[in-house]
Structures are given as structure tokens and as C-alpha cells.
Target: ABC-2 type transport system ATP-binding protein
Amino acid sequence: MLEVRDLHKRFGDKVALDGVSLSVEPGHMFGFVGANGAGKTTTMRITMGVLVPDSGRVLWNGKELTESGRSDFGYMPEERGLYPKMKIAAQIAYFGELAGMTPAVAKRAAGDWLDRLGLGDRGNDFVQDLSLGNQQRVQLAVALVHDPKMLVLDEPFSGLDPIAVDTMATVLQERSEAGVPVVFSSHQLELVERLCDTVGIISAGTMVATGTVAELRARGNRRLRVTVAGATSGWENSVGVPATSVGTDEWVFDTDDDQRVLQAATAAGRVTRFGYDEPSLADIFREASS
Model:
């Protein structure tokens, strides 16, 4: 289990992190969401030992995370950390050896991951000759080649086409189902919503919301959507709560008093739709970051 506790970090006068905490349990995926510059990458770099916090702790299975412990992690930085003039298969195997694998085992694992990620026929190509999306696949293979116990991935879906997104999502789900904790950041909120057990929303260096998607939705602003066929003009004003017309015979109310709205709607015409719209993760993100 990974625990990040009360991280603080400044760069000169800029506060990058102001008490950021999160935890990722075995077999769970944690989605890290925030605007550019919110603190996601800084948190990940501190977790991986690339940066040192001003204060705070990073724990692995209840103990202070050490450099030897980080060697069991798979890390995918936002900026590609690949050698452009090195052949792909050799490069993946090289990173496997750096993580402690024997040359033979690293070579075999590199080939397996190239096949798994749809690059089995590109092993002798140079990284610089690949599209950006395929370079992203190689970067993921580098993070996975040594069978890590934890995955820390900064914008892993950036620049991928839909097929590559599906491939990467499947791989991450498989790793998670095998018991590996996974934390990744992404601006693709629909992916975070679909894949993650827990989501953390960070804004200006502060974690403003954390929980399951269902928990975050429960905290969000639900809107009551009502369709009334043949409604009398202006009926919505009689309810006494904010209402917005969103189409022919359709209104949205910002209220939890559904019975009050229902009574007014049935008096105004024939109610053909009545129910709450659950906020999407994008809606929750906008609310939490405002």
C-alpha cells in the first residue's frame, strides 16, 4: 500500500504542494485529476524520489519508502525518458537490467511486452522512428518490464489513439486485478471515471476532494430534470427555486425538494420525465476546482 502524507513543496515563492495526502491500496487504481500546474507531477516526482519534499512522508506498506523500495516501482514520467537512437527491444531490456533482471530474463520480458502492446514487429526500430503514441507504448513497457509492485504513471494516455487507449487501459486493469496498486494522472476524465476505484482532485497544490466516483457524485450538485408536455407558460416560476429551460417542455431545477417540483409539474401538464441527473466527474472537477 502506498501512502503519501501531508506533502509540502515550494519552488521559490510558488507553493507547489500544500499538505497533499493520498493512499492507494493493493489492487486499486487511483486517478489523480487537476489542471496543469495543480501539483500532480510534483507529487509523483516526490513519490519516485526525483524531488525531495520540504516536509511530509511517503510510505510503502507502512514504512518510509526508500530508494531500494522504489526499485520495485514502475514509473512513467510525463516527459518521455527514452533514448531516441537506441533500438526499442534493447532499450526495454536495458531498463529491466537496471531494475535487477538478468540480461536473458530482461530480453525475454521485453519481447513479451512488445507483443502485448502491439509492437512485436518493431523491436529493431529506433525510438525516434516511432509515432508519439507508439513511443508512449514503449514508455509503458519500460515501466512494466520488471514486473513492478507499484505503478506511478504521469499522463499515460496522452497522445494515444482510441485503440491504444483501450490497450493501455486493459493492461492497467490486468495489473490492478493482479494486486498491483496503480496511480495515474490524466486529463481524460471519462477514463478516470471508468477505470479508477478512487479519485483525487487537486487544485493549486491542495487536495480538494478524494473518494470513489460514487462518493464524489454524492457530494456534487445534483440537478432535477423535468419534462412536462403541454405545460402552462411560466409554471416553473411557481416552484420558487432556480430553474432553467433546457429544451422543448424540459426544465432543470437546482433543488433537493423534488416533491415540491413534482406537485407544480403535475398541476402544469403531463409529466413525461422526472429524475435527477447525477453529476459527471467533469462536473465535480469543475465544482471542486472553482
In short: The domain at 2-217 is CATH 3.40.50.300 (Rossmann fold). The mean pLDDT is 92. The first strand starts at residue 2 and ends at 11.
